[in-house]
Sequence to fold (796 residues):
Amino acid sequence: MPKKIDHEARRRDIAEAAVQVIGEQGIDNARLIDVARAAGATTGAITHYFDDKNALLLAALDHVAQRILHELHAAPTQNPISVDNLIARACTVLPIHEEGMRDWRVWLCFLGRAVADTALARINKSYYVEFRDGISSAVERLQNAGKLDNIIEPGAAADSVLAAIDGIGVRATLDPEEWPAERQKSQLDAMLRAILPTR
Amino acid sequence: MPKKIDHEARRRDIAEAAVQVIGEQGIDNARLIDVARAAGATTGAITHYFDDKNALLLAALDHVAQRILHELHAAPTQNPISVDNLIARACTVLPIHEEGMRDWRVWLCFLGRAVADTALARINKSYYVEFRDGISSAVERLQNAGKLDNIIEPGAAADSVLAAIDGIGVRATLDPEEWPAERQKSQLDAMLRAILPTR
Amino acid sequence: MPKKIDHEARRRDIAEAAVQVIGEQGIDNARLIDVARAAGATTGAITHYFDDKNALLLAALDHVAQRILHELHAAPTQNPISVDNLIARACTVLPIHEEGMRDWRVWLCFLGRAVADTALARINKSYYVEFRDGISSAVERLQNAGKLDNIIEPGAAADSVLAAIDGIGVRATLDPEEWPAERQKSQLDAMLRAILPTR
Amino acid sequence: MPKKIDHEARRRDIAEAAVQVIGEQGIDNARLIDVARAAGATTGAITHYFDDKNALLLAALDHVAQRILHELHAAPTQNPISVDNLIARACTVLPIHEEGMRDWRVWLCFLGRAVADTALARINKSYYVEFRDGISSAVERLQNAGKLDNIIEPGAAADSVLAAIDGIGVRATLDPEEWPAERQKSQLDAMLRAILPTR
DNA sequence: TATGAATGAGCATTCATTCAT
DNA sequence: AATGAATGAATGCTCATTCAT
Fold:
């Protein structure tokens, strides 16, 4: 089914173009025609791939979320499990490189939208559940490997890790000049080492 | 002589009406006429007090930020200085009651906007500076009182506290049903106790 | 009746303020509040002296027209009647000084308005009639004094003089840098000498 | 492929519709929707062809000016050069027919606007330069052909011709009933014969 | 599939006018 | 007589969506 493949690729391209435009101009200033131009298409073409603007925006959000999830989960079995490893993986998610910063900007835009859009809030929540589950099971694995204090409740620890990532990521996204990669990483490292006490 | 009007009070009322409308409908759906109605006024009246919509929005943001700052600083000298006290004060800032939740929703809306509005980003940053300074000096006072480990760098600790508050607050704002007041407080309590080790 | 005198003086002041504002900002940008400020009054006060904005504008136009008429007629009996004298008087009306330029700008604004405002067109016409009558009788006097060729029809000559003044005045008003006082005067002088042949 | 549209033709149509509306209602009362209706379009469609209202208005002015220029220059080489010919051509420009009267009304509207709009004043000036250059070179040709006194300075003569046309045109535009075509033409004829003395 | 011209509802903004004081 | 707060109609502009080609 070559057509389908092309179709999906085009959808991806357009959604990524939307991510780019939102990241640059903000979600309010992201007009359909801007996305079309960034994707080398026309507004009419976009309607072939997305029901309406909202569907396009949702696809853009999903791209960003999937990318973050993928980084969090990246090669978890290959590396030997360790606290250092978990922290390193968490740091990867921070807005420490060009693409990550853009993704965080897009993410922030959607947070603002979710305030008044229950459907979006629900979607956001489902992403958080996935994030949390991934971190929670990593904590459990570390406990089983004897590398983390058993006193810790994995779910609550995962919430703390998520909160730390979010807290630093939001701040760094809005003030990138004061928050270069190193500062973000050392700040997150300090927080996570406090939150995740080794036995 | 025309009707005596307390100009500043009217400005405050309208800005508060904007906070309310933004908190309920989101910043994108907050039309001038909605704010006018919420304030018991007309759109034309709003232009007596604000240059344009953006000025009104900024005033709304400032109200929210001032309220948070005021809570953070509330009666710092009256209470005996203690870690428990600092944590309790931090918890006060979380979206644990009706007004606080609304303020956090408004805050989130502006975070999304700041992504593409450098002026707004600058304003946000200045608020963070104030938040951080307040927390940082509280940490210092605790250290001077011998209630906090001197190993902690006050500024970095303040950043951690801010990140924890932000991380939990954002999550709770978008998913209030899963995050009742108690869960927020215990989560923040756990994080801050880990972050701020007593000697 | 001191009140009446004050009243009339205030009306004059406000109308002159309107002339000033129109001359500076154009009639489209002349807001009531601008006129009020220029007159050291408030919009509410203006409504005490003028029924509505249109009445104020009309008063402003009348001030300008009266000033021009006054200059054209100035001291006609004192000076010995001569063609040179008529030409000199015509030159006085050109936009050759600060106040005259402002009056011409106001005049031009009203010409543009008269296009779609029959009442204004009628008023403009009445001013032209006065201008023309004044010039026409001057021409007649010159003919009676034997200083102008009797072949000339005074009315038609007056129309020519008016057209020359208008043509040069309009051009100089819109391009004052290219049309300093001397150029205007020499141009008008050349035209009028051709139009008004001495015997 | 979308409907094939002659973009330039549509632009012309809309600009001409603007000329018509301005000529009928005046520039202040010319709303975008009026122009849209006159052009058989919608306000939204107009923005496809013009950045904003001002751009549309400018295009309308240009149409009028180009039409006048075209009439002044019409077939200058075909006709044998003569003073009669020049005068006849000047008369053509006067508001002596339906379309010409409308163009003059539009022209007057823009003169009023140019008072407070330096960009418009600059454009107006450039048109006058073109008018003047055309007339000036015609005068020169007449002098070279020995049909006009060499004592005349072509540029100054052109200014006089322009002033005469403007002066009569403005008056006739605002008072068309008193200034039928014949009166305009004979008045201009008289002025130009005086201004342009044959050898 | 794709184009892009056209639509039309929605909204901020302007400002003359009103009126309680 | 004067103030100036408030009104509310008017209007230019934006932009997602539609649809003829």
Remarks:
- Chain D is about 75% helix and 0% strand.
- Chain D has a mean pLDDT of 92.
- Chains D and B do not touch (no CB pair under 8 Å).
- The radius of gyration of chain D is 19 Å.
